[in-house]
Each structure stands twice: as C-alpha cells, then as structure tokens.
Amino acid sequence: MYNNEDRSWMYDRLDHNQNLTSHFEEGVSRFLEFAFSQTQLLNRGQAKCPCIRCCNSKNGKWENIQEHLYKWGFVPQYYVWFAHGEDDMSYEPPTTYFGESSSHHDNVGGRYREMVEDVFGGQFQHTNYNQVEHEENPPVKRFMRKLGLGYKTFDVCVNNCFLYYGEFESDSWTACPECGESRYEPSEIKKKFIARKKLWYLPLTPRLQRLYMSRNTAEHMTWHTKCRRDNDVMIHPASGEAWKSFDATYPDFAAESRNVRVGICTDGFNPYRNSSTPYSCWPVFVTPYNLHLICACDKNELKMLWDSGVQTYDSHRRENFLMRVAVMWTISDYPGYGMLSQWSTHGRLSCPYCMENTKSFQLKHGRKTSFFDCHRRFLPIDHPWRMNTNDFLKGRIETDAPLPRRLGCEMKRHIELLQDIDFGTSRDHIEGFGKEHNWCHKSIFWELPYWEKNLLRHNLDVMHCEKNFFDNIKNTVMDDPDKTKDNMNARRDLQLLTNRRTLFLQTGRDGKLYKRKAVYCLSKEQNIKVLEWLRGLRFPDGYASNISRCVQMQHLRLAGMRSHDCHVFMQRLMPNAFHDFLPDSVWGPLVEVSNFFRALCATELRKSDMEVLQSTIVVTMCKLEKIFPPSFFDSMEHLAIHLPWEAKVGGPVQYRWMYPFERRMFELKRDAGNKARVEASICEAYVMGEIANFSSHYFEYGIETRANRLNRNEVEMDQNNNESTISIFQKRGKALGRGRTKHLTLAEHQAAERYILLNYPEVDCWLRLFDEQMCMGVPENEIESRHNSYFVEWFKEAVYSGRYDVDPQIRGLAYGPPRSEGMKSKASLLDWRRAEGLWNGLVIHRRSHTPHRRSHTPPEPPYHLLHPRFLHVDARHSLALMLNVIPMMKTSRCALHQMTDAREPVLLNNEGMMMQQAE
C-alpha cells in the first residue's frame, strides 16, 4: 500500500518547458509496480489504464499504460487507486500543488470547491472530500419526481389475457384467473415478487393539465378555432367533416374551445439492433390536436375525462375551467388498424369499408387474396366499362352500385350481437369469422359513449399505403425476380381469370413453360438507364435522403428504400423515371397514381377536390386492372379507393399519418439504454424529457432551450431592425463568407423591377386596377405582354399622382433605386457565385462546394428570400426585391413542371434537382 505517500506528483506531469518531470516518471513506475503486483485484478496480464482517455475502463500492458500516462496524465482525483487494489480510505490528498502543470484538470477540484463553499457558506466544513460519503439518489429522485409527472406500472399475464388492475392489483392474485399462468417469476426469496410481464402507464390527465400551466402553450390550445377558412378549404382537422359533425352532435363540448380532442396511435418496434430477436415493444401515443403528442392513455381515464372532466387552471386567461377530452380517431399501420378496431386486416374480408360485401377472392396458384376487378362497382352506373367482359374478369359484367358508408350505430348493433372471446393467445374465433365477418373481438373503444357518433374512427395510414403501392409498381415494372407481382404463378392465375392471351404462358421447344416479357416491364438495358439516372440524382440539402444508396447495379434493382424514399419517388420521380421506356397506355395510369398521392398529401385540401379525386382514382384503378395481373392488386392497392373520403372527413393527411410517430419511435428506441429493462428506461427518459420541456418555458429570454431552439439552417434575426411590412423583408437570412460587389446594368435593373412588381402580393391590388384601366378589350393572349411593357411606368405614375392613398413603403417601392446619368444603377449587391449563406431555412453553397456531394443546393440562391440588412443598397426597400429576377433569367433552359402546391419543390429535369423548400 502507498496510502501514506505524497501523491501530488500525479498531477504535476509537465514542467515549464513542457517536459515530463522526474518525480512524475518515478511515481508512474511505482504505480505500475503496485498495479501489476495485484495479480488477482489482472486480466490476462493486463491492468486497467487510469489515463484521462481510458478512465479505468480499458485494460493495457505495462508499456501501453506508461505511454498513456506520459501522454495524457491520470484521471482527475485518482489519489486512491481503488481500481488497482487499494481499499483503505485513510489517504488525504494534498491541498496545495507544487510546480506548474499543463493539464487542464489540475484546478478542477479548486473551482468546484469554491462553488460548493459559495453555496453552503461556513456550514460545509468537510476538507477531505474523498472521505465524504456520497449521498444516494433518493433525495434527487424525490426532487425530480415533483417536477415530472411520473408513471405507473401494472402486472400483466404473460399470455396477454389478464391485466392486474383495480381490485386485482394486490399480491394475493398470484396466478392468472383466465389461463392459470403464474403472475411472478420463480424466486427463492419469498418476500420478493417480480412480475413476469408489466404494462407501463403514464397518466394522461396531469399531462393535459400541464399544457395549460404555461402561458406559452395555453395560448395556443385554442388556435384551432381561429384557423378555419371558408367551408371548402381544409388546413387542419378542425376544418374536416368529422370535427364539425362532432361539434354539432355535442354542442356543450364544442362550446368550450379549451376542451381537448385527441388521436391515439400505436405501433410496435424492436428495441434491439438484432432484428432476429423476437421482442416487440408497443408504445401508445395520445396526440392532442391542439398541440403535440403525449405518451399513453387509459380507457377508464378517457371515460372520466369525457363524463365529468377535470378542473384545470388556464394560465393564459388566468382562470379555472372544466377540461373535457374526446378521442377523435386512431392512427396506425394496417396490422395495427386490425388490433385497434378488432376487424382483422387479413384474408378475403380484410377491407374495413367493404367488409363482408367485398368481391375479393383468393388466387388459386398465388395463394394470396386479390382485389382484382373490385373497383368497377364504384364507377357511375352508366359507365361503359361496367359491361366490359374482356379486359377484366372474363365473361363478367358489373351491375352492383357503390357501397354506402356504414354508420357507427349500425356497426355497434352488429358487434353487440357477436359472442364474447377471451383475450390472450387463444386462437378461438367468433362464429362466422372469415366468411360472414372479420371481427376478432369487441373493441374497447365502443365503451366510449360518443364513439359510435364519430364519422371517422380509425385512419388508414397514407404513409404505408403509398409505400406498398409504390413497392408493387417498382418491383413489377423493374421486373425484380424476387418481388415482382408478375411471376409464373401470377401468369397461371391470369390465364384462368382473364382473356389476355398475349400474357399467357408459352411452351418452349424443350417443353418447359416460360412467360413473355410484358409491355409494363422494363428490359435489362432500360433498367440500367433508370438506375444510372437514379445513382446520379442529387437533391437539395434536407429534402430527401440519398436514394442512390438503394441502387444495386449488380442485381439491377432498388433495395432498402424507406417510407420517405418511396414518398419522394412516387410523387416526384416516377413520371420522369419511366417516361421514355413505357408506352403511354402504361405510363399514363402510373402518372395518374403519382398525381393522386401528390394531391392527397397536399398541406391544404379542398373538399371539392377530394370529391373529384374520389372519382378519378376509381377510373385509375380500373385502368391499372386492364394492365397488370390479378396478383398485383392486394389490399393496399384497394385501400386507395377509400383515402379521398377519409381526407374529406378528417382533413389533411399530415395530421393522420404515421411519419411523426415513426420518428418518435426512433427516438424511443434510442432512449432504450437498458436493453434488459426496455420499457422502464424508455419511461424514465420520457419523464426526464418532460421535465426539460416544462422547465424550458421558465428560462429568461435569450437562453436557448428546447422550446425556442431554431431548426436546422434557421437564423435568428433582430426583429427591431426590420420595420418593413412588405413580405420580402420578413425573411430570415445570414451571409456566410465574403462576396464580391457588383453593379446592376440597365437591363438587369428593369427586369428585376418588373419581376418584383408583377409577383408580390402587396402590388396585386394595383395590378387589378391596371387591368381595369389599361386592359379592357385586350385579347387574353396579349395581357401578359401589356403587363411587361407598361405596368412599371403606370404603377409609378399612379403612386405619385396623388389620386390614391398610398402606403409609404409602397411609395418607396415605386421610387426604385437611384440611377446615375449613365443609366447605371447605383445599387450594389453581393455576387452570390462567390458567397454562401443561410436563407429562410435553406443553405446556399457555391457550385464548387457540391460537385462531389450527394446533396445539392439550388443552381442559384433564392434571392427572393434575402433580407435587406445583408445587401449593400441605397434604396433599401426596392433594391433588395430586385434580386428576384436573376435566378429566373437563368432557368429558361430548364423544364419546370407546374406544382399543385406553391409551397412544394420544383423539379428540374436537366439537373435532376429541386428548388425551394420541401414540405
């Protein structure tokens, strides 16, 4: 033992010349002799390394540890070598240090000692800090428990058939009353009971109440009453028919705008990196459509929040009110849909809308359920395709009318007549299952008194519908031998069901059957061209992932595409990828599918557009049925028929699809640090996150927290320096690097001024006035030319004529930049070919920055997003706007496709890039 020696040498490593001190070298030798003399602690002749980098967590040989200590020094405060065999705590470290050390850890103890003494004053008399016994965590846990909202645990039967809840929580219930399985793990210690399975529950009521405790969130809890526009436009579920129908049915609930409407989502994930491990964790999320999502819910609590509500203090209005909660619908993938609704999503009756009236069937050779020729019934009664007996199922005509939507009360009466089936691993089914109905159980949601009145109870997930639809198209068109829907069994089924003789199997000279190349399949050379195009494709920074990683040239296929990759390909790339290789009769319907999902996923919907979309998707599906084999049409293709109705009733899909929940589950998977107690570690991390989020609202302004943290590439601007109300000056930006000054020529000046005045909303009223005065009787094809030729001069004359009451900023806009006698603009600006910057959430790089990167920036910066404080101009309010014309003048060679939503990106064919910000 070396407990009585002076170990100040441990942190006096270097002298003033940055050389090792002699007493440090001698001390390291003595330490190594002692460490390697403790043979019981050695691991294959190696001891723990106490350097700053290894921190006694790695083993090393004598020479390696010596090298580490010489290079980096000892871990701080390691006066007692407890990791190397010392257990006597009688050693007292020195209070002074001799010599000068370059280690930045030398004075750490002194700084922290001063901080502690400043807090505790003279009450803290301990001088030997290593001898002070550290207090355990319970006091800290009690303090954190007061800040957080906590959670509860309930024991569950290992067969999922019983929940030990309420009167069954007591330890006297040691076995499941349903199946007899033991509740606890077998243990030799009789007083210690460890449940075999647990449910972790985070109470919903206090979390909803906390949303009203902070003024920052309480003010926004009623914004849904202010976001509604005209009756046809939908930007939030509050504009949908389901929300309005609920308000009409329960006016007392709707009268209090602070009442909360929630959606429930669940999905399973494997918390382990090894996907072969048979373990699945199923979190349940509750999404308040007033604000963001929350974890967990309870049926009894939901009933209480509807029936009696709970008294809640609103910190924004500074008053108490009775908060009630209603569940609008559930959100899940298709298997989760079956678990929540208890209508099985497998088999011939899997469609939850068509139910037992479906015309799906099982393929004889493919052994899968097909929804082929199930969509003609949705066509108008007089449509000619109803009588077509050649292109669909041979010899069959369609005379049935479209199915009406079933009411909730009708479904509830039907469910109440079904027999009860016990939960758990039992494979018993209700009588008639798979033939007359697909009900597995009676869903617990029907116990909510308002559930049958909801127009939309369970949402079909657009994310998974789109992905599965795209996968079938991609694998079949690119003829992936492992995943194509056009294999040998598909051709055998096609031969039995249709009259498409060109696709029948042929017998070769050797007597074997082979299938001809279909018109909807690409050849090997065409697949190579498509994959090479995709491999060279680059997107703007932050728009999409690197799809080129999915290209497998060796197997000529796309593999490993995630949901968002399929989303981008389906809506943006598929029309261009297959345009030159497929005949118009095949390419046209695929483009219609692409346009369908683009229109469906818009952030702003119109009910009239959804009605049109409902009729067009029926025609599109019938076109696809005339092209692809019956095996192509599984349940996910069929569900596209019902998506427009759900959008019309529920509102934009961004509030009802799985993307945000999938991202949240990725975070939960990351939070599962203890793989032996996955659910416990997730709940602990969630509660810590709650505390951080709640506390962040009480920090002073200017301190970065979770509540005010800027998004990627965003720049905080000083709003006091921006007094303009013109939209161009409201954008945020920041210049990176240095630019080069350039003067505008006369042509650039005029083109920029004309572009600004014709394209900004502040001037729209003046443009309408110009049309009334100067374009009456002018042919429509000449109006644009007249705007370009005369509007700028007319606008200036009208503003300064004194006949109109003009805003001072509009007057400054009309004045424009000053010009010299030589007609050169005195305005100077940065030449952005030599500069970089962040503008309104976009990052702009030089062209030389991106050639070898997988992401790309727009070919020219979006000058219309610049802020005037970064521009060297004389007439500030007008010259900044003049920059808009420059990128527009240089994109004439690009084929720009008209977008359905102006906020969505624009695809440039020749560059394979996208401009503007993603959704």
UniProtKB/TrEMBL annotation:
Record-annotated DUF4218 domain positions: 600-713
Taxonomy, superkingdom: Eukaryota
Record InterPro entries: DUF4218, Transpos_assoc, Transposase_21
Chain ranges of the Transposase-associated domain: 7-86
Pfam families in alphabetical order: DUF4218, Transpos_assoc, Transposase_21
Protein name, entry field: Putative transposase
